[in-house]
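INFO batch 0412 | record 1 of 1 | parsing
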Amino acid sequence: MRQLPPSPGFRACLLGAALLTVSLLAGAAPACPPEPRALTAEQLQARPPADRGLLWRISRAGRSAYLYGSIHVGKPGWSHPGPRLRAALQDSDSLALELDPGDPALAQELAAALAARPLAPDAALQPRLERQRAAACLPPEPFADLHPLMQALTLSVLAARWEGMDPAFGQEQALAAQARARRWPVFSLETAAQQVEALLPQDAGQARRMTAELLTQLEQGSARRVLRRLGQAWERGDLEQLARYESWCGCADSPEDRDFLRRVNDARNPGLADGIAALHAQGHRLFIAVGALHMTGPQGLPRLLAQRGFTVERLPLRR
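INFO prediction complete | emitting C-alpha cells
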C-alpha cells in the first residue's frame, strides 16, 4: 500500500482542498494506475532539470518577489527546478502557497469545513462513485465518508496518475519540502474553509449535478484528456493555451458551469493578491506558488498585483 501525500480533476485539479483529501487515501491492486518513481541521481545527471511553468518578478517599494504559476500534480522530473527557478529560489527567504500541504492543522480544518456542508448519499450516484473508487485503487474507508462531490473531485485529480502525473510530484509538495529544508517560513494564502466555500455549492441539487458531470467525464475518459492537455500547456509555460481553458476543458458548457469556474478561480484571486501584498509589506522575500490558471484573464494575479502597485515582469524560463 502506498500513501499518497497531500498536494489541485479537470475542473478543480488546481484546488488545494481537493488535493488535501488525497492524504487520507491509499491503495494498490494489479490494475492500479502506474506508480511514478523519483528520478535517480544518475537520471538527473544524464538529463539536467529544465524550467517549467510560468514565472514573474513582482516589485514594490524597492523589494522584489517571485510569482510562480504551478500545477498541483506532476511527473517525477518536474519536482526538480531548472536554472531560472533555482536562481529565483536562491533570491528568496520564504514561501507562500494557496495552502501549505505540510501544515498538520489543515487536515483538521478541512474535515471541519466539509462537515459543515453535508450531502446525503444519492442512490443513483453511489454505485458510480464506488466503481470509480475501485478503479482508482482506493480503500472504501475513509473515502466513503467524504462529501460526494469531494469524492468525485478527488477521483478526478487522481485520474492524472494514468497520464504519468501524481499529487506526490506536485509543485507545492516539492517547494514546501525545499522551503523546510532551508528553514523558511511557509505561508498559506487561504484557509481550508475558504477553499471548501468556493468548491462546494450550498444547493444540494447543484452539488449532485456537478458530481454526476464529473463522474461522466471520468467514465468517458475525457477527464484524463483534459489533465494531459493541461499538464502539457503548463510544462511549456503556454499562458495563451491556459487562458483558453474554458474553450477546451469541456467544463464550461452551461451558465452554471461558467459560474462555478469563476467562483473557484477568478473570485478567489483578489483575496490571494491581498495576501501576497500583505506578506510582501512585512518584508519577506517571497517565492509565491499559485495554480497556473490563476494567472490568466482580466482577474489574473499578475494584473491584480499590478493594480496594487507592483511592477510585474514575466521572466522567460530555460526549457
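INFO post-check: Strands lie at 2-3, 26-27, 54-60, 63-70, 94-97, 186-188, 286-291, 311-315.
INFO record closed
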